[in-house]
Amino acid sequence: MKETNMIRKIVRLKQLVQRWRSRIPPGGSLAVYVGDEHEHRRFVIPTRFINLPVFASLLNKAEEAFGFQTTGRLVLP
Fold it and tell me: How far is CA 2 from CA 13, 25, 59, 73, 76, in A?
């Protein structure tokens, strides 16, 4: 019985670690959250997109419409 409980704990721990790792964007990318303050959808985009004029335009429009607030992550309404 103890061995079964130990295996279950190990499996749960592995699942938690996998979920935690999936929250960290891979190298060369960043997470962008889109949506209102109650419901965000997470997108992982390559960092090279930051230099694209269309992305800069999107950030400028979001700043003009909603202001700029830093909360530690990039959130677009």
Answer: 17, 37, 55, 43, 49
User: pTM of the entire structure?
Assistant: 0.56
Distance CA 77, CA 63 (A): 10
Neighbours of 66 (CB within 10 A): 11
User: Apex CA 68: angle with CA 63 and CA 69, to 5°?
Assistant: 150
Q: What is the pLDDT of residues 32-46, one digit of tens each?
A: 888 877 788 888 889
- Tell me the CA distances in angstroms from 69 to 11, 29, 59, 76, one per residue in order: 39, 21, 12, 10
Terminal alpha carbon distance of the chain? 51
